[in-house]
Amino acid sequence: MTERPTVNLDADNQIEESTSPIYSSDLLENEKIHTRINLINEEIKRCLLDEDGEPALLYETARHLILAGGKRLRSLLLVLSCEAVGGTVIDALPFAVATEFVQTASLIHDDVVDEDNMRRGVETTHKKFGGKMAIIAGDLLVALAIKLIGERSTPQLLTYVAAGGIRMCEGEAADLLMSQKKDHSYTTKAALEIIRMKTVSFMVSAAKVGAMLGHANEKQMEALVRYAEMLGYSFQIRDDILDIVATQNGTGKTVLSDLKGSRSNFVLAHAIENCSPDQRKDFAKKLSDGDVDFILERIKEGRSVEYSTEIAREYLESAKRAIQGLNFANEELLTLLADFAMNRLY
User: Fold this and answer.
1) Nearest-10 crossing angle of helices 131-150, 56-66
2) How far apart are CA 2 and CA 226, in angstroms?
3) Whose CA is closest to 134, among 64, 210, 194, 182?
4) Which distant-in-sequence residues (6+ apart) come within 8 Å of 295 by Cβ?
5) Is the confidence at residue 261, as pLDDT, over 80?
6) Do 341 and 234 meet the contact criterion of CB atoms below 8 Å apart?
7) What are phi and psi of 68, to 5 degrees?
8) Which fold is adopted by the domain 23-343?
9) Averaged over 124-137, what is the pLDDT?
10) HEC profile of 50-115
11) How many Cβ atoms are within 10 Å of 177's Cβ, its own excluded?
12) Would you state the torsion angle of the CA atoms of residues 157, 158, 159, 162, taken in this order, to the nearest 10 degrees?
């Protein structure tokens, strides 16, 4: 497990989410980034429209969430990793699309498990089409990803993608199991381990595939893997913060879903960890009962959002350091991507 950065939160360095939101639109306003996101989106549409099988409802279900948009962070990471070491967007594009297919499939299945109603500003797939069809549509997206990669890939590349998917599934299962034992196992250390499996592993897989497509040398590969790892931690902790503080209109998804569904959340883990043993048992009961107001009050008292923000920023800086001094062709874009992962409001 990656060692958690140490932080010093003094009274002069307090972060209030509600009064000083941190967000930079530099990533989306950057013409080069915008062009690459558009290319990814267009290729996603083309690939989905090329697949026009039967029954038609299955393909409509599979297209619902992925065509609703998204940050395209993982696919963008793959493309930028490829370009960083001399590859091209064209080299990376099919693999970037496959990455989005696998990621979207995991979101569809997660929403079924969590019984969430909103994702990317639209109804979740199972809410619109039913749980059974949603699960099959997620399976279809995974199959389409394998087809895309298999047509253009080596066994090693396919292994990288599969390994990321396996770790992601393991993390999801570990999350469910940990949620049943909150009072003694819900810690920031455990939350980071689940982040490593659920988020970081897939980020690393995307960076590895991109770097390999661009023919990275060993030193370049190590740097991009380190960058992706730190980026993954920063991104997911920020996501956990947003689940606590954001409004539904701001995120386009069901808010407080981690609290309502008793799922792993770094902010929540910090709040629980800073309670006495007796308080932890009470905390776990309130969480089980769905007493969100009580939980939010404890989070506020423990300054858990502020602490989590500082930890996420430490990971962000580690990501940036990982790519410095290696003469990557697009270091500026990789830096922008890292900033966006941490500073986004959705």
Assistant:
1) 80
2) 11
3) 64
4) 259, 268, 271, 283, 286, 287
5) no
6) yes
7) -75, -10
8) Farnesyl Diphosphate Synthase (1.10.600)
9) 92
10) HCCCCCHHHHHHHHHHHCCCCCCHHHHHHHHHHHHCCCCHHHHHHHHHHHHHHHHHHHHHHHHHHC
11) 11
12) 130
Mean of per-residue pLDDT scores for the chain? 82
Cα 316 from Cα 335, distance rounded (Å): 9
Helices (H) and strands (E) in the chain, counts: 19, 2
Contact 228, 198 (CB under 8 A): no
Give the amino acid at 77: L
Structure tokens at 221: 């590969």
8 A C-beta contact, residue 50 and residue 94: no
Secondary-structure percent of the chain, ordered helix, strand, coil, rounded to 5: 75, 0, 25
Which residues are paired to 118 by β-bridges? 123
pLDDT in tens, 272-285: 888 877 788 788 77
Query: Which DSSP symbol is given to 11?
Result: G
| Helix, strand, or coil (residue 118) | strand
pLDDT tens digits, 213-236? 999 999 999 999 999 999 999 999
Of 95-99, 144-148, 195-199, 242-246, the least confident: 242-246
Q: How far apart are CA 51 and CA 60, in angstroms?
A: 11
- Whole-angstrom CA distances from 274 to 74, 251, 268, 279, 306 are 33, 28, 10, 9, 14
pTM above 0.90, yes or no: no
